[in-house]
Amino acid sequence: MVYILHGDDEYAIAQFLSDLESKLGDPATAAMNITRLDGKTYNPDSLLSVAGAMPFLAKRRVVILTSPLTRLTSPAARQKFCEQLEKLPPTTALILVENRLLVDDRDRRKGVGVTDTGLPDID
Fold first, then answer.
1. Are strands 61-66 and 2-6 parallel, antiparallel or unpaired?
2. Fewest C-beta in 10 Å: which of 62, 88, 89, 90?
3. What 3-state DSSP class applies to 93?
């Protein structure tokens, strides 16, 4: 399960993440099952080891990767990242947060690449 949050509305993104975290249940247990990675500093080779860990006393693990495109500058890096996404276990929700729009304004006005599915069910 992969979610892509993009755009410059940092408050809305933070609210979405907060709501998602609250769905994990008890805050202490939720904290043990949430990992935050910064795309500028994380090791891309470690993504699967972090995301592949089994949830602890919960049904789901959440990995939040901010600025994921920072390290995906070559075709080989993008290909490897896509291969890692295919190997994510069903118990992990990976949330990619890019603080810029990933579609241009013209396409966004047409609704291309824009969906509003509401808060995902991570139970």
1. unpaired
2. 90
3. strand
